[in-house]
Amino acid sequence: MLFRSWGPPPTGFEHVLQLVPGVTGVLAATAAAWFAWRLAARMVGERAATRGIAGIWLGSSAFYYTLIAPSYSHAASMFACAMFFWHWLHSDAEWTPARAAVSGALAGFASLMRWQDALLLAVPIYEMARARTTWSSRAGGAAAAVVGWAVAFSPQMSVWNALYGRPLAMPQGSSFMRWTDPHPFLVLFSRSEEHTSELQSRFGIS
Questions:
Q1: Along the 206 residues of the chain, how does pLDDT read in single tens digits?
Q2: How many CB atoms lie within 10 A of CB 169?
Q3: Contact at 8 Å (CB) between 109 and 102?
């Protein structure tokens, strides 16, 4: 409505609309690094935590998605996952159905950023399975984690249901995230697209 009062409806390619996700991506990645540092410092001390977080940031794709392509979902995923791990490891409190529900909701929030983060749901289920409580409480806690995840992830499921006719989908296609076909050699040693093609032809890799 604000843009409409200024003129024609926005197309999504306006400079300010492209700037916002980039800036917020940088802020999200920075906040994720801060959460991770605070958590690590609690366990190993500030100096070791600083070296560890700096090494992870500089030695992984986090550097690229923080400064080169912060508008991608990776920076937001870093922040959401940092919040999840903070909730998981910062407290020594016993695992209860209520805590499992919150943990599941945080996993669902992370899944909204990148759906692969749904793997985090395994954490509260595992923690409830080994909690020192009754079997009924363990089962209730695991169910609470799943419900918390589903509620937090429901906006994405609603969109997928409207677009694809089902609440759970893989929009990138069946070739996306093929766990049985990781190509570790090409990932670790290829230097260019031309070199990758040469390796593929030499070793018969498709």
A1: 555 566 678 777 788 888 888 999 999 999 999 999 999 999 999 999 999 999 999 888 899 999 999 999 999 999 999 999 999 998 878 899 999 999 999 999 999 999 999 999 999 999 999 998 999 999 999 999 999 999 999 999 999 999 999 998 888 777 777 777 777 777 777 665 555 555 556 555 55
A2: 15
A3: no
Angstrom distance (rounded) from CA 48 to CA 36: 12
Beta-strand ranges (E) seen in the chain are: none
* Angle at the Cα of 109 from the Cα atoms of 104 and 112, rounded to 5 degrees: 130
Tokens describing residue 30? 């920075």
Q: Which residues contact 30 (CB under 8 A, 6 or more apart)?
A: 66
Q: Which residue is listed with tokens 């700096």? A: 54
Helix-then-strand count for the chain, H and E: 10, 0
Question: Which DSSP letter does residue 153 get?
Answer: H
Q: What is the pTM of this model?
A: 0.80
Alpha-carbon Rg for the chain, nearest whole angstrom, is: 21
What is the separation, in whole angstroms, between the first and last Cα of the chain? 50
